[in-house]
Design brief:
Number of strands: 0
Helix content: 55-70%
Number of domains: 2
Radius of gyration: 15 Å
Order of helices and strands: HHHHHHH
Structural class: mainly alpha
Length: 136
C-alpha cells in the first residue's frame, strides 16, 4: 500500500491484496482496509452494518456500481450484498442485536430483490419504523 499509494483501493488493488495476503478472508481484509483510512471503491468497501445510516449509504453506493456495471460487475456487486445479508442473519442470532440485525438483513434483501427500488423503499421504511437519519 505504501509503495503503490493508491488514491482509492479499487477492484484491481483488492484482487492483488487478496492474492498477496492469501489465505486472508475477504471480511477481515475489508475491515483492515476500512480502518486504514484509504478511500475504497464501493465493491471493496462492501456493505457497512455499524449503523442504519452506514448501511443505507453503502447500499446506495453499491446501487450506483450495479446500475453502471455490465453483467459481470453486477454479479460482483450482488455477491458482496449476499455476503452482507448472510452476515446480518448470522449476527441476528445474538440476542442483544437480534432486532437490529434482522432489520438490516431486510434492507439488504430488499436491495437484492430490486436494487433500483431501494432508495424509495428505504425512505418509506425509515418513516414506517421511526429510523430517522443521524445528523452529520
Amino acid at each position: 500500500m505504501e509503495r503503490a499509494a493508491p488514491r482509492e483501493i479499487g477492484e484491481p488493488e483488492w484482487q492483488a491484496l487478496l492474492a498477496l495476503l492469501a489465505p486472508v478472508s475477504e471480511s477481515y481484509l475489508r475491515r483492515l482496509l476500512r480502518d486504514s483510512g484509504v478511500p475504497l471503491a464501493p465493491v471493496v468497501e462492501g456493505v457497512r452494518q455499524e449503523s442504519f445510516d452506514a448501511l443505507e449509504s453503502s447500499l446506495l453506493r453499491l446501487l450506483g456500481e450495479y446500475e453502471q456495471g455490465d453483467a459481470a460487475a453486477r454479479l460482483r456487486v450482488r455477491r458482496v450484498a449476499i455476503a452482507a445479508k448472510d452476515h446480518a442473519r448470522f449476527a441476528a442470532r445474538r440476542e442483544e442485536k437480534r432486532e437490529e440485525k434482522q432489520e438490516m438483513a431486510l434492507w439488504i434483501l430488499t436491495w437484492l430483490e430490486n436494487p433500483p427500488v431501494f432508495p424509495e423503499w428505504v425512505r418509506l421504511r425509515r418513516a414506517a419504523v421511526g429510523l430517522i437519519k443521524e445528523e452529520a
